[in-house]
Amino acid sequence: MEKANQTNDGVKIGRERIEKMSAEVVDSNPYSRLMALQRMGIVKEYEQIRLKSVAVVGVGGVGSVTADMLTRCGIGKLMLFDYDKVELANMNRLFFTPDQAGLSKVEAAAKTLNFINPDVAITTHNYNITTVDNFDHFLDAIRTGGREPGTPVDLVLSCVDNFEARMAINTACNELSLNWFESGVSENAVSGHIQFIRPGETACFGCAPPLVVAENIDEKTLKREGVCAASLPTTMGIVAGMLVQNTLKYLLNFGTVSDYLGYNAMIDFFPRMSLKPNPTCDDRFCIERQREYLAKPPCEKNVTNLDEAEPEEPLHEDNLYGIELVAEDVDTPTSKSNEKVTTTQSNIAEGLRLAYEAPVANEETSQVSIDDDVSLDQLMAQMSGLSERK
Fold it and tell me: What is the distance between the alpha carbons of residues 347 and 319, in angstroms, rounded to a whole number?
């Protein structure tokens, strides 16, 4: 083990570094509960997480919690991008603490994360990725920021709060053909979403842009003095949890990764869907990625996550409405005049009832026997006879 419990300035940064993850169940092993996923058959080889590199763009309400979770999960390398500073106004959220006010978000986050898990390699990038020069720095960073020097990152996570930054990430990932997750929380703080974008295969952020982007509106004109968006640590934490959960599923190849997963806190509704790319997208790199994907052989294309196989079981096995199928060659017994025809109402779940009751059979009711070979004239004669008897 490499000792890493002190920095050069003498500040304690936590435990010693661990060279190899162990599944040993002891109080001193920070990975025992993570490695249990492997023992339980959820993940084939959990330690592969240490070979992965993830870029988190935006270290705010969602991004800081996302970085925290990935660090605790033992991600190999974490790249943090942000240019903002920690403010006391951020204290309604998770992660940051009042003593960090005034520090850059990436600097404050790196110190906390290094203390939590010194095994994670953390790099910080304190600049605005939307400017021309900084965009090139960002592009180069994610192109060469993999666990192995010179390789691209395995995944980019967008946790920014503005469309301009999302479009910058979208452009960079389309150009480099990098998979990424877009995430967001509504201004009223009671809904959010994540979207998994695979260039050429699914819709990029420019394929179906929001109105502010589609109509080329300047975001700055939408902000009003003294008015800010609402923010709840609960919604931020839920969206961050959805984001990291799907990140782990993607990186470690287990479960189903959601193409789009929403969250409505007012009714606890989690919609899912898939978005196909727009063949007339304004992003030329998106069009190039679409051509490349269409040229792939079918065996290399991903099956849409939301496609479901035909159900093997009967669709209406519960038979809530008491419907019965009777073979034509089976005689149905006639009920007595004072008894109702038996139904399957007893099988209906408690609290439900049939829309109508089965009719009561009456032996005194006149019956008309109709033979399959009876002609229309004969039938009319029988009907006339019944009228005369009445």
Answer: 8
Q: How far apart are CA 271 and CA 39, in angstroms?
A: 32
- The pLDDT of residue 208 is 75
- Distance (Å, whole) CA 337 – CA 266: 55
Long-range contacts of 309-315 (CB under 8 A, 24+ apart): none
| pLDDT score of 382 | 72
**Cβ(275)–Cβ(207) below 8 Å:** yes
Paired with 260 in beta bridges are 195, 273
Q: CA nearest 103: which of 124, 73, 72?
A: 124
207 has catalytic annotation: no
The span from the CA of 55 to the CA of 368, in Å, is 81
Give residues with Cβ within 8 angstroms of 210, minimum separation 6. Answer: 163
Which is the catalytic residue, given 73, 159, 207, 228? 228
Torsional class of 106: left (φ above 0), alpha (ψ -120 to 50), beta (otherwise): alpha
The predicted pLDDT at position 224 comes to 59
48: how many CB neighbours lie within 10 A of its CB? 15
Instruction: Return the pLDDT at 230.
Output: 86
Distance linking the first and last C-alpha atoms of the chain: 105
List, in order, residues 6 or more apart from 144 with CB less than 8 Å away: 150, 151, 152
At residue 165, φ and ψ (nearest 5 deg) are: -70, -35
- Please name the residue ranges forming H helices in the chain: 32-39, 63-72, 105-116, 132-144, 163-176, 211-214, 233-252, 284-295, 376-389
Structure-block tokens of residue 360? 């009561």
Does domain 34-295 fall under CATH 3.40.50.720? My reply is yes
Say which amino acid occupies 163. F
Summarised one tens digit per residue, pLDDT across range 171-200 is: 999 999 999 999 999 989 999 999 999 999
DSSP notation for 61-107:
TTHHHHHHHHHHTT-SEEEEE---B--GGGGGSSS--GGGTTSBHHH
Full-model pTM: 0.73
Give the domain ranges of the chain: 34-295
Which residue stretches of the chain have pLDDT < 50? Answer: 1-4, 212, 214, 304-312, 314-315, 330, 332-349, 351-356, 365-366, 368, 370
